[in-house]
Specification:
Order of helices and strands: HEEHHHHHHHHHEHHEHHHHHH
Structural class: mainly alpha
Helix content: 40-55%
Strand content: under 5%
Number of helices: 18
Strand order of the largest sheet: 1-2
């Protein structure tokens, strides 16, 4: 049997061979005619689906996929596209099988419709859309990605009524540009269950960063400075803030002391201004000595006192570091030119770079870095001559 329909009449070809975007839906006399083809032909030609069935029957087509309910009187072409399956090859949604949530959200997204509208239209066409499932009345193109267990493109699809873990909310929010609270509200609107009830205050509890990285991910820890800031602003006990973060799928990067001191927020802020961005705990090399010296100048407390308090707040200083008795602006300037940690060796090229940026001699730089705890293993006679400060 040829793949071409028996009739070559142009009017008949308009019914048996349909262009659906870049794809083609063909019907063959020896195969069942999909219901989706009937509806799309009706929508394309502006006639009733029953008229399409009659014409195809007259052309010799005898096997049709049709619903057990009366055919709709009309079919809009855009409505018919709701029945198109996702895939590399053109296929139509089958009658008699429960319609998946994934299909409804994909079809609604393609058509720019709300999930509720797409579900109602599919039901009117005779498809088995599960009854009693709430769906949003507002369109949202990101809905399909919300229900993927890996928002970056892999993983399975969530299905009607699944319970969604808190880490999924954080993951899809990070990928799709939602706040976690917005993602949680939309997932509930799609009929999913969460292990917590979203609250308006969650926006403040979860928003700790700056710029485009304001929200946590499942792989990040919330800085303790943020917890103290939220507790101060909202009047909630810091233990309650930590507990709510845990319910939302987040952990803090350090344990918090029972008693808060007036300088804690300043010490925990990267810019020493008591505001975000907050100092993250560095589990590999510890807090920077430069931060301790700057905090000493900002608070009037000794570097040793700052070091002790930061350790209480979870920010430890590497054991190789040697804390000077007094904070010196010259030391801070020198440390700003050093891109090595106390775990790294400082070599000749690093000393020369710092010397050129500070206007100090290589010998002065090497001596001072050694006094601050850096390891300079090279046997080098560093010159005492000072160069010009690099622009």
């Amino acid at each position: 049997m040829s793949n071409s329909p028996e009739s070559q009449d142009p009017e008949d070809l308009r019914i048996t061979r349909l262009n659906v975007g870049r794809e083609t839906s063909w019907v063959q006399p020896d195969r069942r005619v999909p219901y989706g083809h009937v509806l799309y032909a009706a929508g394309t030609l502006g006639c009733a689906p029953a008229a399409i069935v009659s014409r195809l029957t007259a052309l010799g087509y005898a096997d049709f996929e049709l619903p057990g309910t009366p055919l709709p009187l009309t079919a809009d072409r855009d409505d018919a596209l709701l029945i198109k399956e996702e895939g590399y090859n053109l296929s139509w949604l089958e009658l008699g099988k429960p319609v998946s949530l994934r299909h409804i959200l994909a079809a609604a997204g393609r058509a720019g419709r709300s999930p509720a509208d797409a579900a109602r239209r599919l039901t009117a066409f005779g498809y088995a859309v599960p009854a009693g499932r709430p769906l949003p009345e507002s369109p949202e193109t990101r809905d399909l990605a919300l229900i993927r267990t890996d928002g970056r493109g892999d993983g399975e699809w969530l299905e009607w009524g699944d319970e969604v873990p808190a880490h999924h909310v954080l993951s899809v929010a990070a990928v799709l540009g939602y706040s976690p609270h917005q993602a949680a509200i939309r997932l509930i609107g799609l009929g999913f269950r969460l292990p917590y009830t979203p609250e308006p205050g969650d926006e403040r509890i979860l928003g700790y960063g700056t710029g485009h990285r304001i929200w946590p991910s499942p792989y990040s820890a919330v800085p303790s400075g943020h917890v103290l800031d939220v507790a101060r602003e909202t009047g909630r006990p810091q233990a309650a803030v930590v507990a709510r973060l845990a319910e939302l799928g987040c952990r803090t990067d350090a344990p918090l002391p029972d008693t808060q001191e007036k300088d804690d927020l300043l010490l925990l802020s990267q810019e020493l201004d008591g505001r975000a961005p907050w100092l993250p705990v560095n589990g590999a090399v510890g807090v920077q000595l430069r931060h301790i010296l700057r905090a000493s100048l900002a608070t009037g407390r000794t570097p040793a006192e700052i070091t002790e308090r930061l350790a209480t707040l979870g920010h430890w200083l590497h054991g190789n570091a040697k804390v000077p008795a007094v904070a010196d602006v010259a030391d801070i300037r020198l440390l700003e030119t050093v891109d090595r940690s106390f775990l790294d060796n400082v070599h000749l090229e690093h000393v020369l770079r710092s010397a050129s940026l500070t206007g100090r001699s290589p010998a002065e730089v090497a001596s001072r870095l050694t006094a601050l705890g850096y390891q300079l293993p090279d046997e080098v006679d560093y010159p005492e001559v000072r160069g010009k400060v690099a622009a």
